[in-house]
Amino acid sequence: MSTPSAASVPLVPPLSALRRAAPVLPVVAVVALLALPAEPDSGATPADLACGLVVLWAAVRSVGRTQRPLTRTAAVVLGLPVVGVAVAATGAVTPGDGIDGLARYLQVFVLVPLGVVLLVRDRRDARLVLWSLAGLALWQGAVGVHQYLTGTGASYQGADIRAVGTFGPSDVMGMASVVASGVVALTGLALGARARRQRVVAAGCAVALLVPLAMSFSRGAWIATAAACGALLLLAGVRRALKLFAAAAAAAVVLVGGFGVGGSALQERLSSITQVTDTPDQSVLDRYTMWAAATDIWREHPVTGVGLKAFPAYRDSHASLALSSGSDTEGAGQAFRRQPLLSPHNMYMLVLSEQGLLGLLTVAGSWPALLVCALRRLRRAGPARDCALAACGLLLWQLVNFLYADIGGPSTTLTAVCFGLAAWWSLAGGATTGPAAESDAR
């Protein structure tokens, strides 16, 4: 009796796994393409083009379905932002701004999340996307650590030590957002997994990513990560959370206070979080000034705002003289340039000023709706608890980070994927019933 050749045997499992994962591979491709170097002012990136593939592939797969692809709740929550964004697009300063802003908002908050909901079928697909996100975070984190150690990063206080990964100084928050999302996703995977191997690997990778996160010098990312991971620990169990909080506090005191780990620049940046109301640096002062300007703009246009991408046109007439003309960026392979301040660096303020109360209720209002649905389903997550915690954590991270940042730059594509994962868990009916990637009892 003939036996299969040695060369043909190993091909069967990978091919079978590839066919099984085929529907969700466009989502994985979006995450993977964010590892490529980003060119400043390059417009659409490869990851943006892959987002179009996600939407197209989701539409094609939905056509042949006999059952309704979305529940009524999902249709309302995901479709709600279209109202506010469409109205604000009509009030843009130029038609081009209206079209660009409309396309970006729909990509991040409607189309890509909808595509993820339709393509991620079960917890095995969700784990694949989450681990691809973790892989991206590890890659960007490794590049960032190399930049910090070799002095080839973005400029920070006169030294090229700020870790920015492949995003460059023009998207200085890009690497911090990716790495922080990786930390949160891995924390959820570690806390909810039944398999010991996944718990150990996820926890180890999450701890390792704290190093490049610290080297990013991003205070907003630090705060959002601490808030999201703290919430996940509490959701996973109060007793375990208290123990881990105590261990983390003790480790921080020993490493930073006792051994001085992180250097003077990192310690100064960390201590500045508690000093922003006393002696704020120029970046914090600019942020406060733009927040005040955004509030004044909204008061003059309370219902529908001033239109998409119109904040820069109204900024100077409402901002105080304390606002600088822009931020200086250089390093990480890019020459010195003056980066204009085109947004209030607060997503809620940006929506309020450009879209008014209508946008705040329809666009920003859909986010807490997602969070409520996600937390309600968390109680009956069952074997998908790891995916559920990770999805909830990513949504929490985004909502907290939006207090200090907004959409813009190549890393915004990851925001769309994170909202998609949160929407999959919150709104996709029966998403927890699919097969697992491995035996949950292992």
The Rg value, from CA coordinates, equals 22 Å
How many DSSP-defined strands? 4
Class derived from helix and strand content: mainly alpha
Q: Helical residue percent?
A: 55-70%
Number of helices: 17
State the strand order across the main sheet.
Answer: 1-2
* Helix-strand sequence: HHHHHHEEHHHHHHHEEHHHH
Mean pLDDT: 84
Quote the distance from N terminus to C terminus: 36 Å
Poorly predicted sequence stretches spanning 5 or more consecutive residues: 4-12, 432-442
What is the molecular shape? globular
Tell me the β content. under 5%
Integer count of domains: 1
Biggest β-sheet, characterized? 2 strands, antiparallel
